[in-house]
Amino acid sequence: MNESPAEGKTYSGFVAIVGKPNVGKSTLLNNLLGVKVAPISPRPQTTRKRLRGILTEGNRQIVFVDTPGLHEPQDALGEFMDREVYEALSDVNAVVWVVDLRHPPTPEDEQVARALRPLVGKVPILLVGNKLDEAKYPEEALKAYHALLPEAQARAISALDPKQVAALRAELLALLPEGPFFYPEDFAKSDQSFEEWAAEIVREEAMKRLWEEVPYAVAVKTEEVAERENGLLYVKAVIYVERPSQKPILIGQGGRKLKEIGQAARKQMEALLGRRVYLDLEVKVYPNWRKDPEALRELGYRSSLE
Ligand SMILES: Nc1nc2c(ncn2[C@@H]2O[C@H](COP(=O)(O)OP(=O)(O)OP(=O)(O)O)[C@@H](O)[C@H]2O)c(=O)[nH]1
């Protein structure tokens, strides 16, 4: 653990961001931090792994833990994702429970509320009704969610509104108990390696462009990152699919889809790094990787307990 800053008291803690798939958890995390650390797509269950985002402001530090959307697992990947949520909840100072105000609660929201119940009275639980900008009956919806866990403190926001996100950020910073920083003040905003981040960006761009079952069959692994003489950063990533029939869907006619995915991911990388990137993508088949615990580990879905 790192004691910091040099003088005076410090306040620090872990804040878990939980909720069912697609409610805006990753969007909220990225906007709380002011940088993009988590992948976002209109597809539910884009987030697969727990991810830490680190926010340091003055003498206060929050380590956010973004979690996959809690859902009924269909396979080994799904079980891994739910386990990630329960582990994230085991040792936190506050919980942000995100719900979608455009719709009333579903059984999945009830499942999240049940998972949070043991924390009542132990740590603050902030119920964040998100997507206020597009909600027709936000007050009624928030009330219905609040009824699932009346002990939570409820508020409505849009994760896309910088002012509302800043207010939530200030509220969370104020909740922190006194304690030393977990990361040095100048630590990057996420604990992901560049290789992991690059793979997540490619997966995000692929998921946005695929339909039905195919987005969920995609896994991405960064195989190489190398400096090139002309100032280019060379990044080689492999996109894995589960069946040979999925490969042409990803590549598209005349390679068009893969090119689109590559261009969009490269742009995101260049924007973050402020330099030119050569992104080399390849598509391979890894039969039924989602059902195979060994394959999950190989593709980076490793529990932090291992
Ligand atoms: N209109 C509106 N859309 C939002 C808001 N917040 C997030 N979204 C959109 O909701 C979709 C899902 O957002 P994510 O941040 O990926 O959601 P998530 O909860 O992390 O999803 P999982 O990875 O499935 O757990 C994306 O298309 C976002 O752009 C909001 O406040 N208003």
From TrEMBL:
Major place of residence: cytoplasm
Annotated GO biological processes are: ribosomal small subunit assembly
Name the segments for region: G3.
66-69
Residue ranges of every copy of the Era-type G domain listed in the record: 11-178
Q: Where in the cell is it found?
A: Cytoplasm; Cell membrane
Annotated region (G4) at 130-133
Q: Which domain of life is it from?
A: Bacteria
Pfam entry (one) = KH_2
**A GO cellular component entry from the record:** plasma membrane
Which residues are noted in the entry as GTP-binding? 19-26, 66-70, 130-133
| Annotated spans, G1 | 19-26
Q: How is the protein disposed in the membrane?
A: Peripheral membrane protein
Q: Name one GO molecular function term.
A: ribosomal small subunit binding
Q: Which InterPro entries match?
A: G_ERA_dom, GTP-bd, GTPase_Era-like, KH_dom-like_a/b, KH_dom_type_2, KH_sf_prok-type, P-loop_NTPase, Small_GTP-bd
> Which segments carry the region annotation G5?
157-159
Q: Where is the KH type-2 domain?
A: 210-287
- Keyword line: Cell membrane, Cytoplasm, GTP-binding, Membrane, Nucleotide-binding, Ribosome biogenesis, RNA-binding, rRNA-binding
* Family from the record: Belongs to the TRAFAC class TrmE-Era-EngA-EngB-Septin-like GTPase superfamily. Era GTPase family.
UniProt subunit comment: Monomer.
Role noted for this protein: An essential GTPase that binds both GDP and GTP, with rapid nucleotide exchange. Plays a role in 16S rRNA processing and 30S ribosomal subunit biogenesis and possibly also in cell cycle regulation and energy metabolism.
Q: Which NCBIfam families match?
A: era, PRK00089.1, small_GTP
**Annotated protein name in UniProt:** GTPase Era
The species this protein belongs to is Thermus filiformis
